[in-house]
Amino acid sequence: MANHTLNRRTFIKVSTAACGGLVIGATWLSSCGQEEKPVDPRGEADGFKEMNAYIKIATNGVVTINAPNPEIGQGVKTALPMLVAEELDMDWDKVIVEQAPLDTDNFFRQVAGGSGSVREAWLPFRKAGASARYLLLAAAAQEWDVPMDDCRTMDGYVYHDGTAQKAHYGELVNTAADIDLPDEVPLKDKANFRLIGTAVKNVDNRKIITGQPLFGLDTKREGMKYAMVVRPPAFGQTLDSYDDSETMSMPGIHKVISFDDKVAVIGDSTWAVKKGRDALQIKWKTNDQLESSEQHTADFKNLINRKSNDPKRKDGQVESAIADADKVLEATYECPFLPHACLEPMNFFAHVKDDHIELNGPVQLPARARTHIADKLEVEEEIIDVHMTRMGGGFGRRLYMDFVEDAAMVSKMTKLPIQVVWTREDDMTAGVYRPAGMYNYKAAIKDDQLMGWHLRSAAINTGNGTRENNFPAGAVPNFQVDYHQLDSDVTIGAWRAPNHNFIAFSEECFLDEVAHELGKDPVDFRLELLASAKDKEDVQVDYDVGRYIGVINRVKQMSGWGLSEKSGVYRGFGAHFSFGTYVAQVAEVAIEDDDIKVKKVYCAVDCGIVVNRSGAETQIEGGIIDGLGHALYGELKIEEGKANITNFDKHRMIRMRECPEVVIDFIDSGFDPQGLGEPGLPPIPAAVGNAIFAATGVRIRKLPFIQHQKELIG
Amino acid sequence: MKEYNIRVNGESHIVEVHEDTPLMWVLRDSLGLVGTKYGCGIAQCGACTVHVDGEAMRSCSMPISSVGDKSIVTIEGLSKEGDHPVQQAWDEADVSQCGYCQAGQIMTAVAFLNKNRTPSDDAIEEAMHGNICRCGTYNRVKKAIKIAADKM
Ligand code: FES
Ligand code: FES
Q1: What is A216-287+346-421's CATH number?
Q2: Where would I find the beta strands (DSSP E) of B35-110?
Q3: CB contact under 8 A, A73 and B97
Q4: Which CATH architecture has domain A306-337+433-713?
Q5: pLDDT, tens digit, for every residue of A513-526?
Q6: Is residue B74 domain-shared with residue B91, that is, in the same domain?
Q7: Residues having CB within 6 Å of any atom of ligand 2
Q8: B66 and B93 share a domain?
Q9: How far apart are CA A5 and CA A31, in angstroms?
């Protein structure tokens, strides 16, 4: 019987397990031809309310694994079900993966952020698979009347070799449903992994390459209307008044409404509402003086020169180290705002009814979306359902609720199912940027040793714009980090590898400056510092010295650092620890046709166990390309309160021609898996900046690199 | 509003839209062919790429009034079974991260490979220059194009 003809399912609760109960046995009955509504496996109607729902096994042996986490392109819809399938001993080719909706009763941490999905899922998801496998083994033993220990599983079957019996999981699921699960179910020994560590393809490949509806913007519903929402064009402005008479006379326009200093146009199609919003006459109010990036820079300077009474970190006495030094190096690094520029612009669907609210779309924090909208609309959370679509990129932007709020408010006010669409211009000008900041470093050198390190920093609207326990913290006896927040009307947010994405550039370039001052090879200099950190047991750092040294040595070896250089090609080094993962990179740069050309990047990674090799490689490579592109070209300035770029004509993104060859090596350290979506990005701007210095003698301290093209070409 | 009869993926469709409506929104909103993606609306990102009489075009910047009787092919119509050699190569090279740009990348690559079966790296880079991938999948895109070139 083919799967697609199955139209009735009953579901049996089979277990609760250590991580809170999780296995469902699903019996797909062969009642072909009868049109019955499928029963929701998590529906209360069948009395299965409190169970977790990772696995469904049909009596025909088909296994469906739920992917509960939001997928932004980081690959969790593939990697997390792999963890379940590994322990279930299921043939991956026969697994169906389904995106689960928000379900806080049955799942935990349905979050895309902090490169934490695989790390956090590592044990519970494997336990889900192992628990189901245990029950199937026990069921087989019971049916065949043999000891359970003599049974084994492989690719969706249970075997008893002694009696030459074999059954697929589906044949056992009904018996398994009545078996109790012990408190502890053994997990596989890592040495026996057969799926984890292999290269598995993106589970949505087929839908993506055939153009099936998958993303938020692809949402269609009966009676759905489109809406665009106009926000104040400058940060610090509010709505004064608007005239919608022209808009309302246009075809396909239903309504114009206003809420929270915004004006929304609702209509039959995206283009109709786009034309309608362009025809609005809106007056905005400006109370304060509008901000500018120029003014921010001046304010940063004042702030970093202000004495800090509350250092983020203080080891030893940095001021005396500076006073005693033979030489003090000082350099100021400047970080521009960046928009997220997810290729799928922000959008969301909401249908707000009195007794039920449907939220559907690309959101990295679905649970927060529910609480946020419940608050905003003053309703009970229980009436809100949240469904996550695949996201055309997240990078931190979809952690915020502005676009969710737009959809919910417009739907509430119009009582219609509403798809809110942001234009690229809306997306790029609405804020939530990578915060701009300034990082001033002083290095105190005495007797050819780095004795003091003082970072004084300031950034926009960020509680802490530094990462004070980063290397070289722990390796320098007198070490201090000061930070000041600059308050601003410009909204900021997490941008892929928050703080790390710039601070790695400034730290790793300044370390290079110090190495050059000392006449030391920059890589050897770092290894020397790390060795000294190892000796200091009393200092607290976030990183493990041995693993840090491990990636540096590996990339040294991969790139042949210090050995013969290719003519016209210059090398730079950068390393960084973030989200549990150690990354070291060497960039090879040439100046060709009056342009900076990054030819090749070597990258060593220690993220612990690699779950999906294909996904891991593409995350690291993507991080490198993305980080490189933004370091080369990315900059958003505020002028008279507004973003100076609105679309990809002015916001230059890296393109294929500018991409280096990337060589990646994962260190087989055997530790539990750590982050991969973000850690590949932070080191690359420094590796390139240091290579540019090697090539030209010009030290770039302000991103993006493209701004300095003239100086480099001379 | 005006009526237009357009030919998409081998079928005729009558749509009633404003004459300056970009083909992209006609495909997405009127015909429900959402495989063609919106990324910028100003011919800068390539997410909306479709074939117009076999040429890769930015459907966001092509008003419906200029379509006439030209034959439009979208990602949905590239192959019946989703098995065009370029689609297969995209799967084989496991190109997609978020996947949002990939329909546009594929449509650009197909039109290019139809003209150049033995492309150099330079030619690939030139052809693909108009397609942005925020996730940074470019090297795998290039690899997939080479795999497809061998198969076509
Ligand atoms: S949407 Fe057409 S090129 Fe970007
Ligand atoms: S795969 Fe995400 S934009 Fe290309």
Answers
A1: 3.30.365.10
A2: 49-52, 55-58, 71-73
A3: yes
A4: 2-Layer Sandwich (3.30)
A5: 999 999 999 999 99
A6: no
A7: A 73, 343, 393; B 96-102, 133-135, 137
A8: no
A9: 9
Q: Which of B135, B137, B140 would you mutate first to test chain A, the one with the most A CBs within 10 A?
A: B135
Distance between CA atoms of residues A510 and A445, nearest Å:
13
Structure tokens at A655: 């393109």
Flag whether pLDDT at A49 surpasses 50.
no
Q: What tens digit of pLDDT does each residue of B36-52 get? A: 999 999 999 999 999 99
Residue A344 Cα to ligand 2 midpoint, Å, equals: 9
Residue of A nearest to B99 (CA): A208
Tell me whether residues B44 and A341 touch, CB distance under 8 A: no
> Looking at B48, B78, B108, which one is the last position of a domain?
B78
Tell me which residues have their CB closer than 6 angstroms to ligand 1. Answer: B 38-41, 43-48, 58, 60
- Peptide linkage before A704 cis (omega within 30 of 0): yes
Residues forming beta bridges with residue A460, ordered by sequence position: A486
Give, in degrees to the nearest 5, the angle at Cα A128 between A187 and A104: 140
What CA–CA distance (Å, rounded) separates A215 from A347? 10
Tell me the two tokens of residue A68: 């509960």
DSSP annotation of A682 reads T
Q: How many Å apart are CA A661 and CA A455, to the nearest integer?
A: 34
Q: Say if residue B94 is exposed, middle or buried (CB neighbours under 10 Å; 0-12, 13-18, 19+).
A: buried
- Closest approach of chain A CAs to the CA of B113, in angstroms? 16
Instruction: Tell me: pLDDT of A9 over 80.
Output: no
- Closest by CA position to A662, among listed A581, A558, A566: A558
Minimal CA separation from B136 to chain A, in Å? 4
Cα–Cα dist A40/A16, whole Å: 19
The CATH number fitting domain A44-209, selected from 3.30.365.10, 3.40.50.800, 2.40.160.20, 1.10.3720.10: 3.30.365.10
Read off the pLDDT band of A566 (50, 70, 90).
confident
Using alpha carbons, list the distances in angstroms from residue A134 to A52, A60, A131, A475. Answer: 17, 19, 5, 49
A587-631 residue pLDDT tens: 999 988 888 899 999 999 999 999 999 999 999 999 999 999 999
Per-residue pLDDT at A18: 28
pLDDT of residue A563: 86
Q: Which residue has the tokens 């309608």?
A: A276
In tens, the pLDDT along A627-654 reads 999 999 999 999 999 999 999 999 999 9
Which atom of ligand 2 sits closest to the CA of residue A392?
A: 2
Which residue of A lies nearest to B78 if distances are taken between CA atoms? A210
Contacting residues of A for B141, CB less than 8 Å apart:
656
